[in-house]
Design a protein that fits this description.
Structural class of chain A: mainly alpha
Structural class of chain B: alpha+beta
Helix content of chain B: 10-25%
Strand order of the largest sheet of chain B: 1-4-5-6-7
Strand content of chain B: 35-45%
Order of helices and strands of chain B: HEEEHEEEEEEEEH
Oligomer: heterodimer
Number of helices of chain B: 3
Shape of chain B: extended
Largest interface: A-B, 15 and 14 residues
Distance between the termini of chain B: 69 Å
Largest sheet of chain A: none
Number of strands of chain B: 11
Distance between the termini of chain A: 186 Å
């Protein structure tokens, strides 16, 4: 009985629904289509996953199928659009959304890979920091041999280089997903970038590198050949920092003008850290210069060659020019030491690499000084060489004469033997 | 020529002139005009008793309709009316609680009543107008389904009988 009642109710409902559907007005059809269409458009815009996209594709097909019989009505109601053109619009939007989502997915994968790389780099940097501490401690203990100290200095320098490279890679990894033009980033993206920089502690790490180099300069006894590497390292760091500073400023500006949460929280500390890096760079350069020019001056003073004191490229060039001019006029005895022992053996051999750096003396200026010193070298011509060469030539000539001379004929003896016959 | 003859001649000339001019004024007629809107417009009555149909840029005051149906010129304020133009160019207007569909003819600066068709004795509950050229179909849920012209009401059975 219950089943029969249920069946009859269901039938009545179906008849009612059927009648209701048959009675649907054109306006209702139009409105139903419009609402479904607009909902679909919104859903396509907000869809992110593959499953959502697949569902949307079938919903577009269903919409087209459902309203195919009303295509004339829809064309009239939405003129100049038609059902076909509106479905095409949806499909175009769907294709764009699919492309966008694929790109987003790929970028998410890349970002995940970069995040992983950032974590690895952070770990490696921490490892290098620990090694650096150990090396500096060993250097300061001064209980090791000179060879061992040289080895320690080399390891420490390699350590600092490696850390520099790792931090550069870390910075690249953070900036890579955001493209080159930071000014075109949305506020949300800028905020995300600022957060990543903060999380990776980038500015502190950069300041740390500069500080490490200052410590390195203060705790090691450097040799002439070391400076070429150190000057190059400083220049590279400075160039990277000037590029990075601009990017960081954009990110810091974004975090300052971004959400209220970000305001004041990141902008001030990051600005301070950037100033710290600038200050550390100034100190690094100052220590490097002081150590370099003092070391170079020592080459002269240790050999009792009096030159005017110098503390930068300009004063060094002036000092050398002054010495050469003076030597030309006075025929100074120290010229030989100056040219042979200092300029040729030390400066040209070991200091040249660093001196030719544009921030020190520069290639042109070095070449100019070298030509000047070579004049001194010519003027100090050694006549002994001529003497010795003449001697050698004389010996050769005597030897040649001796070997090639003809033996005397025995004419004087023959008459003696003939005498008895006479 | 006498004075009377002169008058007669002038009168004939006037008649001839008018006879020649009148057809010239009304001779241009464009035919096969179809005014039918594909779908009815559902318009909300504003505070000043006017409605605005955006697609066809049509606006008019509905206070006289409210007066006719409810004896209250403000009875339609905030409510919806349904408007559809048929192929002949008549505007069909109705609304919930209406007993009639009003057939209005467009005039210079006004819509004049052409016909008032009674479609429900109790008043329509949820009416809708569909374009079924040359008819306008009026629906009210499942209870009413009629086909209207500017002058007449037809039941679906009558249309079937006519073979339409």
């Amino acid at each position: 009985m219950n089943f029969q009642r249920l069946l009859s109710t269901a039938l009545a409902l179906l008849v009612f629904i059927g009648f209701s559907l048959a009675q649907e007005s054109d306006y209702e059809i139009k409105e139903r289509f419009r609402q479904t269409y607009e909902t679909l458009k919104r859903d396509i815009d907000s869809a992110r996953t593959r499953d959502q996209m697949a569902m949307l594709s079938s919903r577009i097909g269903a919409l087209e199928q459902e309203f195919a019989e009303h295509s004339k009505l829809i064309a009239g109601a939405f003129h100049p659009k038609t059902l076909e053109s509106m479905i095409d619009e949806l499909r175009d939007q769907y294709t764009l959304a699919q492309y966008k989502n694929t790109t987003i997915q790929e970028q998410s994968d890349k970002i995940a890979a970069l995040e992983n790389q950032i974590a690895i780099l952070n770990t490696q940097i921490e490892g290098l920091n620990a090694e650096r501490e150990m090396l500096i401690a060993q250097l300061k203990s001064a209980q090791t041999s000179l060879a061992k100290q040289r080895e320690l200095v080399k390891r420490l320098r390699d350590n600092l280089n490696a850390k520099d490279r790792l931090v550069a890679a870390l910075v690249d990894s953070i900036f890579l997903p955001f493209g080159k033009n930071l000014h075109q980033l949305s506020e949300v993206q800028k905020e995300a970038l600022a957060q990543r920089l903060e999380k990776a502690n980038i500015l502190a790490r950069i300041a740390d590198i500069a500080q490490d180099n200052i410590t390195f300069l203060g705790s090691t006894k450097l040799e002439a050949k070391d400076y070429a590497v150190l000057v190059n390292q400083y220049e590279q760091f400075k160039n990277r920092w000037s590029g990075l500073k601009e990017k960081l400023s954009a990110a810091v500006a974004a975090s300052a003008s971004g959400t209220p949460r970000a305001k004041g929280k990141q902008a001030v500390p990051q600005t301070n850290e950037a100033e710290q890096v600038d200050a550390a760079l100034v100190e690094w350069r100052s220590k490097l210069d002081a150590s370099f020019w003092a070391g170079l001056m020592n080459e002269f003073s240790s050999r009792n060659v009096a030159v005017q004191p110098f503390n930068d490229g300009k004063s060094f060039a002036a000092s050398i020019r002054s010495y050469v001019e003076s030597a030309k006029q006075n025929s100074d005895d120290n010229t030989k030491i100056f040219v042979d022992e200092i300029w040729i053996q030390r400066i040209d051999k070991d200091w040249r690499g660093a001196l030719e750096s544009e921030s020190m003396l520069g290639k042109l200026e070095y070449a100019s000084l070298d030509r000047l010193v070579s004049q001194l070298h010519k003027e100090r011509f050694n006549w002994q060489i001529v003497f010795w060469i003449a001697n050698v030539i004389a010996v050769i000539l005597v030897g040649w004469w001796f070997l090639t001379r003809k033996p005397k004929p025995a004419q004087n003896q023959e008459p003696a033997t003939a005498k008895p016959n006479a | 020529m006498t004075r009377n003859e002169s008058r007669q001649t002038g009168f004939v000339a006037l008649i001839v002139s008018v006879a020649l001019l009148l057809p010239a004024c009304s001779s241009l007629i464009l035919e096969q005009v179809d005014y039918a809107w594909p779908v009815e417009s559902v318009l909300t009555v504003q505070e000043n008793n006017t409605v605005f149909e955006g697609r066809h840029a049509l606006t008019f005051n509905v206070a006289p309709l409210a007066e006719q149906e409810f004896h209250n010129p403000n009875a339609l304020k905030g409510k919806e009316i349904r408007l559809l133009r048929n192929s002949e160019g008549y505007y069909f207007i109705t609304a919930a609680q209406f007993k009639h569909v009003y057939v209005m003819s467009p005039q210079a600066g006004q819509l004049a009543l052409h016909n008032r068709l009674e479609v429900s004795q109790q008043g329509l509950r949820k009416p809708a107008l569909n374009q079924r050229s040359p008819y306008v179909e009026v629906l009210d849920g499942t209870s009413v389904r009629l086909f209207l012209t500017g002058d007449d009401i037809l039941e679906p059975q009558e249309l079937r009988a006519e073979g339409r």
